[in-house]
Amino acid sequence: MGKSILIGAILGSLIGWVMGFTIFSGIIVGAIVGGIFFSLFTKRTTTQLDEKNKQEEQTIQLREEELDIEKERVQTGEVKIHKEVVEEQKTITVPIRRQEMVIEAGDEEQYRIPLKEEEIEIHKHPVKLNDVSISKQEVTEIQQVKATVKKETADVDIDGTVDVARNNEQQ
Q: Helices 23-56 & 2-19, crossing angle to 10 degrees?
């Protein structure tokens, strides 16, 4: 831009001198005209280059699939816990005492002596045998999930002798 203003100032001073203006006013008018000319010229040139590049350049959008993992709780079974009564025969040896009458021969008197013996009575009562704890615990295990995903790549087919500039290829 500086070159355009300088050239415009020089041309403006020459035109101003030829037309009879002062050289200073010619420099100012020339600089302004040179700046305007530079702005218009570069805008037009940039616009033309952008349009030309747009016509020559095309893009292809490449895509790939990604895996989205979701987890869902499902009931896999059920556990029922109940008590069951099991009967079994137990045999216990218990010593029992009893009295026996012993009579010795001798005088003829009668004696009445009560005899006693122990009888076995069976009583049942519950006894705490064991506590069974019931709870759930969370166990984490690692599973590998495999799935096939698709990925688009750009493939260039060249026919004939064509120069192709390749940029860094994306992996």
A: 140
Kindly state whether residue 63 falls inside one of the protein's structural domains.
no
Split into its structural domains, the chain has a count of 1
What is d(CA 2, CA 5) in angstroms, rounded to the nearest whole number? Answer: 5
Residue 17 belongs to domain spanning: 2-50
Other beta carbons within 10 angstroms of residue 9's beta carbon come to 20
The predicted-structure confidence for 125-148, as pLDDT tens digits, reads as follows: 999 999 989 999 999 999 999 999
Q: Is residue 118 part of a domain?
A: no
**Beta strand residue intervals within 44-117, DSSP E:** none
Give this prediction's pTM.
0.34
Reported residue count of the chain is: 171
Residue 108 inside a domain? The answer is no
- Segments in the chain forming alpha helices (H): 2-19, 23-56
Question: Per the domain annotation, does 18 fall within a domain?
Answer: yes
- Separation of alpha carbons 5 and 1, rounded Å: 6
